[in-house]
C-alpha cells in the first residue's frame, strides 16, 4: 500500500513538472548519511565533561540509535539550497537541532513522569528527576555555546526562538480551551511550538547562511513547519494505532497524561460526551478507556491522518519552489515517509 501511495505521489509531481519521469527519488536517510556519520561523536565532544556521572547522563540518548530525523532534514535542506558543499555552520546547526531536541525529551520525561523512551528506561527513571533536569539544562547550554560559535547573530536569534517556543508549547499543553474551535487552534499552535518550530527554524537558519533572500528563508521555514506538524499529527495517530513495542513507549500515553490530541478532538465532534472528559483531562475513573473506545468508533484517526497529508502537500508545494536537485526531491519523498511511518 505504501509503494502504491508513493507511486501516486511521484506521478502527481511529474504531472506538475516538479520532477522528471526518469528520476528515481533517493532515500533521504541514505542521501544524508555521509554528512551524519560522526554526528553523535561530535555531539559527545560538545558535551565533554570530566565528571563521569554527568557524562553518562548526557551521552545516554546520544548512543547512535536515534533516527536523527531533524539533522537529516537540516542537511538535506542545506544541500538543496547550496550551490556547493555543506557549510560547516550548516552542519553545526544539524548537530544543534539534535541537541535541543534531546534536551527537550529529557525535560519532557520529567514533566510527564515517563519511565520509557526509545525502548529503554528514561534518564529520570535511572538517575532521578533532579539529575535529569540538570542533564537537560547542560545539553541546552552546550547547544547554545555551539550556536554562538557559528558567529551569525540572525541565526542565533532564529534558533533561540525554538527554545522559547518549546517552553511556551509545554505551558500550552498544560491547559485546554472550552470552545471547540479554539481548542483545535490551541492544539495546532501547541503542536507547532513543541515539535515543528525546531524543524522550521533550523531549516530557516541554514538558509540564512547561504541566501539573503527572505523568500528563500520563508520556503525553508514553511517546509519545516508543515513537515513538523504532519510528523506530530502522525505521532498522535500512532498513540491509538500502534502497539507499545513498536512505539518504544506505552500506547494511549497521551490520554493517560490528560492530553486531547487530534484523534480525540475529531472524535468529540461525533461523541460530545468527550467534551467533559477533555475539560477534566480524563481524570475520572474509566475516562481513559471510554475516550479510547470513542476514538476507535469515530473517524478521528482517519481525519487526523488526512490533516497530516494536507500539511505534507503544502510542504511539497513549498520545497518544489527550489531549483531541482536530488536533495530537494529527497525532501519531497520524506513527506511520504512521514505519513507512512509506524513508529
From TrEMBL:
Requisite cofactors: Mg(2+)
A Pfam family the protein falls into: polyprenyl_synt
SUPFAM superfamilies: Terpenoid synthases
Enzyme Commission number(s): 2.5.1.91
Family to which the UniProt record says this protein belongs: Belongs to the FPP/GGPP synthase family.
Subunit and interaction comment: Heterotetramer composed of 2 PDSS1/DPS1 and 2 PDSS2/DLP1 subunits.
Name recorded for this polypeptide: All trans-polyprenyl-diphosphate synthase PDSS1
